Amino acid sequence: MSDTVTNQRPDSLLKDALVRIQQEVDACFDATLPVPEDPRARLYEAMRYSAIGGGKRLRPLLVTAVASLFGVDRSVAVRVGTALESIHVYSLIHDDMPCMDNDSLRHGKPTVHLAYDDATAVLAGDALQALAFEILSDPDLVGDPFVRIELVRTLAHASGINGMVGGQMMDIAAETASFDLATVTRLQQLKTGALLAAAVEMGAILGHVPPEGRTHLRGYARNIGLAFQIVDDLLDAEGDEEAAGKALRKDAEAGKETFVSLLGIDRARSQARVLVDQAIEFLNSYGEEAELLRAVARYIVERDR
Amino acid sequence: MSDTVTNQRPDSLLKDALVRIQQEVDACFDATLPVPEDPRARLYEAMRYSAIGGGKRLRPLLVTAVASLFGVDRSVAVRVGTALESIHVYSLIHDDMPCMDNDSLRHGKPTVHLAYDDATAVLAGDALQALAFEILSDPDLVGDPFVRIELVRTLAHASGINGMVGGQMMDIAAETASFDLATVTRLQQLKTGALLAAAVEMGAILGHVPPEGRTHLRGYARNIGLAFQIVDDLLDAEGDEEAAGKALRKDAEAGKETFVSLLGIDRARSQARVLVDQAIEFLNSYGEEAELLRAVARYIVERDR
Q1: Which of A25, A178, A261, B216 has the fewest CB atoms in 10 Å of its CB?
Q2: What ipTM score was computed for the predicted complex, to two decimals?
Q3: What is the number of CB-based contacts under 8 A between chain A and chain B?
Q4: Which CATH number is B30's domain given?
Q5: Which domain holds residue A195?
Q6: pLDDT (mean) for A136-143
Q7: Closest chain A residue to B142, measured at CA
Q8: Are B100 and A122 an interchain contact pair (Cβ–Cβ within 8 Å)?
């Protein structure tokens, strides 16, 4: 990523919050996935390998940051964030497989199908998807069944055919079709935007915010989701593979249209900045308590991986 | 399957019920998966290809048969059965893939990864898993959020690492390990038993039966689940590939221990009969209204595919 985008370091509020949520999500996965002494051990190990100790944990960070606006118990928000992260991790495992993106590196270590095998990768992904809904439906999470079922509903919709998986399918189609900007935008709203939006939504659900009170938070989520993907495309085009911990420039090689190929680097970068500024404006009704959410928005364009 | 087991035809009560539930589940999938005019069309088509017009629909039949004991609205029970079937179908798609069982035939037609491609098969399975939880969390299903969240909890647990997927992992391990009868039983209780038990449990949840009132139904479910798998092993050892609509004798070729390899054909068959008799005894507190559940139990040992 060029200097113009990386000259600001994430502030310490965000840095501390990232370190904290990474530890919390790791601890939650660790407690949720104790390796049994039976022939399922290898599956548990593959799930732990992929779920523990990697990733920015941006989605759990969003859940906890929004939930904290409404005084939600932090350990509950962390578990909900871990459920969401479980979906994200499963999608990466399946996406990395030979029949999909065929990637060999993820978070700087061999992908699950290489560290284990393809069959274990399929099953680890499948089990992590189920785990997300096990965590959210657990009566120990929150007593109110309405809160739990709304969390399930939000995550199932955001991760399924009308969300993440639908976006992944469009992404495959992008290799052979030539998408315009509207279609690429739709693709990315589904592929990454839906789950980021779900993170914000689930924080609000935990806070008992009714749907009509979520308008501004949804605007924030929509904008950072799109900005996130534009920056992903910029990092893919300009980034360093070692810093990223994964293979880059695969989209161009596959002949896929991206925000960068359609807008060019300069317009893509300014578009990401505009989106982030608008995202921050959506938080105007909140005071200092939303400072972390503002920092997350700025981080989206400033990150270098 | 030998004559001694197939000399009784399923009675017309069961026959009619199977035809009816097959039509209802097909209609429910059809209504739930309208193909959109966008690049996700291929994914929808693959989901429809695998979900519509195949399979015995034994799990939805169990949901509706149990729900009917308690006067549950049939269309609600059918949707819950379709959610459960969505999980079953996704597991078959992933199980058939080259890196798993590498099967080319399912319900007499080419498996999804052959009719489409491996990537589409991965995503169709992933999307069908999410669909199950979308159906169950839909507020239009039942107003009471407690019923919906209990349905989600039951299905997530039964399909995840402590249920179906855990059993599939043990099944893979069975190729290189030499399991004893206790381990094979545990494997099958997870791999197929958990989802069959969930079908019965979900029917009872719809009927507002409290957990302490489900003991007999759980006994019924546990017994038919095990009998089902023993008969599957018998059909695999003795069945006709064309009638089965799938490849057979793969367990023996893979060197896996099964109920048949461990017990022999005669003891396996008598064990299945004992289990079914016990299953029917668990229904003694019910009258004529449970006749369909008794017929299902008998069908488990009498079926030829």
Answers
A1: A178
A2: 0.93
A3: 172
A4: 1.10.600.10
A5: 3-302
A6: 97
A7: A149
A8: yes
